[in-house]
Amino acid sequence: MATSKYMGRDKGVDLKDAVGFFSWDLSENKVFADSVFAHIYGIPPHELEIGAPIEQVIKHVAEDDMPRVAKALHETIVSGKPCHQTYKISHPSGKSIVVTGQGRCLRNGEGMPSIYTGLVTAEENGVKSNDADRLASHCMEALKLAKRRRHALAERYLTSALGALGRRAEN
């Protein structure tokens, strides 16, 4: 499975399990986001820490997907209803990445659209992880938590579940 590693401040993050978070201040046209979001879109993290224009974020959306993505963003801003979109971007590194985003536009005290907030996940080269991979990933995270909390029975069950999925528990 083709995935890439993003080297954050603490450790590498596998894009297939990474979630990037963002908030777009509509009145200032500034998108603020975490480092995973920055990596997915190929934007230097410091630019999203201070806020980057939405045009900088969406400029790499595939030409074929742009009208649909723009329409969905507009409808969500107007309606306040949740938005769920999957689209391709041409990452500045040359990679093709499939992005799935979920968001909603929040209202201010006067009921006007104010902050569009949400999250994105990415799949390099359009390779989706299958359900077993996602389940194994969740089991691995639960196993780490069980170990930290010293829940021996939970550790045994989760190790067994990982074995049934064809994965080995990491030490």
Protein model, in words:
The protein is α+β, with helices and mostly antiparallel strands. The protein is built from 6 helices and 7 strands; from the N terminus they run ββββααααβββαα. It has helices at residues 35-41, 45-50, 54-58, 66-79, 131-148, 152-164; strands at 5-7, 12-14, 20-25, 30-33, 83-90, 96-107, 113-124. It has a 5-stranded antiparallel sheet. Strands 1-2 form a two-stranded antiparallel sheet. A hairpin with a 5-residue loop joins strand 5 and strand 6 (96-107). Helix 5 runs antiparallel to helix 6. The radius of gyration is 18 Å and the shape is elongated.
Beta-strand percent range: 25-35%
Provide the succession of SSEs: EEEEHHHHEEEHH
Structural class: alpha+beta
**CATH homologous superfamily label of the largest domain:** PAS domain
- Based on the coordinates given, report the CATH architecture of the largest domain: 2-Layer Sandwich
Number of domains: 2
Unreliable sequence segments = 1-13
Assigned CATH class of the largest domain? Alpha Beta
Domain PAS fold-3: 31-118
Pfam family, one: PAS_3
Protein name: PAS domain-containing protein
